[in-house]
Amino acid sequence: MVERSDRAPLLDWEEVPSAEKPDGEPPARLPSPSDGRASSGCSGFGWSSGPGGPAPGADGCGAPPATSGAPAAADKALPPDKEEHLSDTGAREGSLEDRMVKWEEKDQIVSVFVVTFNTRTGNMLEWCLPKDMDLEGVEFKAIASGSHRVSTDFIYFRKGCFFGLACFANMAVESTEERGARMKSVGILSPSYTLLYRYMSFLEHQVRLQLHTPGHYSPLEAFYEDKRALLPPSGESVVTALPANAWGAAINHSMHPEMKITHPAGCMSQFIRFFGEQIMVLWKLALLRRRILIFSPPPVGVVCYRVYCCCCLANISIPGVGVAVPEFRPFFYVNVADISILENELSYVACTTEKIFEEKKDLYDVYVDNQNVKTYRDGLKPLLRLSAADREKYRKLTEQRQMLLYSQEENGDCVSSEEDLFILFFLEQNNRIFQTLSEVAGSSDPTITQESVRAMGLDPHGDRLFLLHLLEIYGYDSLLVSEQLCCS
Length: 488
Known about the structure:
alpha/beta, 5-stranded mixed beta sheet, 15 helices, elongated
């Protein structure tokens, strides 16, 4: 069953897993984190970059969440008990542990909580499991500054070594004590943000329940017991095996019929349509691992997707490239309580609803206000100008998108998606640059010429400063730059 999302077109479709599918068809299963688009050895951004490191077998490359708008593609995957019959006995026995690990990765919920707005004390933590979890400050992440202006929202955020997703709702009430409005947020924490979006509909349902019947926590308690991960006694941020009943709970992953599987489908195409040609400026800044802060008033959910999309621009799948550069870390939503943390970050992308951040110029390299990309750093200001090669790349990207849309309309292409197209476009562009640099570095004359710059898809004149920054950051400073590459 496919339902239109109330957040469309950001979320193009939501599939409801149900045990009542026709012909005994099993519930659809999303691709696991190891089903990523890029090849192994990917550096930079990954949706599996939790404190425990990359997913087993991912070779350091976390895959972004599935963004295909084609439910049919997801239906091809089989649950573990069906996959078991596709291999011989030896392979089946050898892969049991691997399959267990994959299912455990999907159920690493370390905390569930409810945050409320109190007219006397402000945001406060109302309830949580486990009771001894350090959730200090989560009340200001789960209810973003300015959220009182919107009726619903969702927020991705970072809390210490964990990632969180919270759904917020605001309901009018006839209560003098509550000043006519009741505001709550229900959220979860996980070591990885790979599949947090799977639980969005569940959280939306629960926050509405909390608004209408405050204090009704039994569904949240059952959810936590089913999905919880166990942290080691040492307190280290490493997730160990799930409880003994994890395998049974994993197979019965449709036990919460109200839990729709929500894809952030359409977020990349919306992101590029929103910024237009400026996407090429953001691409360069992301590849240079700059500190990027995105400002927007609430709702903040769509802006959290822009954080994700910015990180996708910096994907590289050539083994060894980018190992020594700062990790491009997504922080999603941040507020003033995160200032001390951001002061020590070398590279990140985050979003905020608090305008005061614009004055904290030492916290960021690039400030994005709606479609306005600006910097106060003189060395970066020339990078805000589009080169001829930037405009050509954007033209090609637009053409490819139009061809895809035509194919979907005329030929019924339900496999390809705009998300795949955009992510692969920038992945291939980045690989092209570093493949050329590696070839030049291995040649008898390690000099970057106009021809080699064009081979990278760059403008020999307009992209000279970008290239110099790139060589310095990625450790190619031993390469010589031809004197013909003069400033434009």
